[in-house]
Structures are given as structure tokens and as C-alpha cells.
Amino acid sequence: MMRIGFGYDVHRLEEGHELILGGVTIPFEKGTVAHSDGDVLIHAICDALLGAANLGDIGSHFPDTDPGNRNLDSTQILRHVLKLIHDAGFKVINVDTTICLQKPKLAGYTEQMKQHLGQWLPRKALSIKATTTEKMGFVGEGRGISAYAAVLLEG
Ligand SMILES: [Zn+2]
């Protein structure tokens, strides 16, 4: 049986915070404001994985009211979610993502993100795309960052 999943995440961007995407720290004057490390890419992927398996969402597994989740490394969230997926009898077939960010350009970092995430996700079936929003909306104005992910599971 094949199951499709979809995930979306958004965080505010402010000075004095780190910008971490797909487990890779991107040098930039602003970073994500979040309870965890604010990795929108991993969060979108995790929600897509959980959605495909109908196992709730990232907030139900890692509530932001839990002080134990403060500054949580999102790679740990991904590994936990993948364990849930595997325990439920599913295998990840492919992952397709889009990060929406006005600045900085991410083209030079997507390979590193794939390398990092490819340790737990199917490396050759992992797509990471990036787009601006043509200076429109909260992303275009540099106030935030968002990410979309679609996954296919077989189980
Ligand atoms: Zn998030």
C-alpha cells in the first residue's frame, strides 16, 4: 500500500538567532525564532511523514509546552519520527521539499542538507528545492521562512 503525506512549517526570522536548515547551519544575519532549533525543512518533512502514516503531527509528539523540547536538535525529531514510521510498518519511498526564503540564496547548501538528511532518508529520492516569493508577503519581506514537504510511504 502506498501512502502520501504533506507537511508545512513556518517560523519567524529575527536577528540574534541561528538559521538551521536540513541540519545545516547557514551563515546569515537572521535566524529562526522557535522553541526547538527552528529547522523548518525538517519540521515540514516530519509532519509529512506523520501525516502519511496518520500518526498525528509534530506538535503532538514534541509539544512546545514541554521544557525538555527547548532548543531541541530537529535531527533528533526526525530520527524519532522515522522510528515511529518504521514501527508502524512503513518505508520511505521519496521525499520532495520546497523551502521559501527571500535571502540568503540556498543553492550552495542544498547538497550539504541532502548529505545530512540522507543518513536517515533515501538519499537518491530526496529532493530539496528553494524559492523566493518575489519579495511578496512575510517571506519576501524577510520576516519569515516556510517549507513544504511531500512524502510517499510504502507499507
Ligand atoms: Zn517548526
The unique ligands bound to this protein are: zinc ion
Backbone shape: globular
Oligomer: single chain
Series of H and E elements: EEEEHHHEHEHE
Work out the helix count: 5
Q: Could you describe the largest sheet, including whether it forms a barrel?
A: 5 strands, mixed
What ranges have pLDDT less than 50 throughout 5 or more consecutive residues?
none
Q: How far apart are the termini? A: 5 Å
| Structural Rg | 15 Å
Please, what is the average pLDDT? 96
- Total count of strands: 7
Order of strands side by side in the largest beta sheet? 4-1-7-5-6
Helix share of residues?
25-40%
- Which class do the helix and strand fractions yield? alpha+beta
Strand content: 25-35%
How do the helices and strands line up, and which of them pair or pack?
Blueprint: E1 2-15, E2 20-21, E3 24-25, E4 30-33, H1 40-52, H2 58-61, H3 74-87, E5 91-100, H4 110-117, E6 126-131, H5 137-140, E7 144-154
Parallel strand pairs: 5-6
Antiparallel strand pairs: 1-4, 1-7, 2-3, 5-7
Helix pairs in contact: 1-3
The structure holds zinc ion.
Zinc ion (ZN) binds next to strand 1 and helix 1.
